[in-house]
UniProtKB/TrEMBL annotation:
Protein family according to the UniProt entry: Belongs to the cysteine dioxygenase family.
Keywords, alphabetical: Dioxygenase, Iron, Metal-binding, Oxidoreductase, Thioether bond
Family annotation (InterPro entries): CDO_1, RmlC-like_jellyroll, RmlC_Cupin_sf
GO MF, one example: ferrous iron binding
The keyword rRNA processing belongs to this UniProt entry's keyword annotation: no
Name this protein carries in UniProt: Cysteine dioxygenase
Protein residues bound to Fe cation: H92, H94, H142
Cross-link 3'-(S-cysteinyl)-tyrosine (Cys-Tyr), sequence positions: C98-Y158
Superkingdom field: Bacteria
Amino acid sequence: MNSTTYPTQPARVGLPELLDGIREQTSRGLDPRPTALAVADVLREQTPGVDLLTAEERLGDPHELVSNVLHTESAFSVKAVVWQPGQLTAIHDHLAWCAFVVLQGVEYETLYRDHGDHLTEIGRAANGPGEASGFAPPGDIHRVHNTGDVTAISLHVYGADLGADGASVRREYDLPVR
Ligand SMILES: [Fe+2]
């Protein structure tokens, strides 16, 4: 337990190694999309266990999905997200590339296209434990929904310094889906 370096964070087993792997990719100077895919490969190869989070953090919150920023630096940030059954994000897109891996449960993602006055659904994905993917704007309008009956936990990496609680969201879409 190193309470000197990160006094507000519990020990995160495996996190320093994972950050090294991510940093190796983000420092290559690739474009956003290949960077996101390369970081997704790192997440797939070095998927941490759910014990990256404390037992209390893994519970989530019945009132809202919980984001826990585990690390930020200038090139990227790492967040753990805990979704109780039924919890979902707004339909949104991002300013920065993003890669994620599921640690527990299943994350259901729906992709949309913006037609100005409405959206259409253009794809769906269901990712289970150890499955990772990456994407980069533009064209990354999506919603994530835990439609399963167990709490889902995932690790998200964004290509930006999010500070303590930022989310890199460019826009939330309150448009009808046709
Ligand atoms: Fe997102």
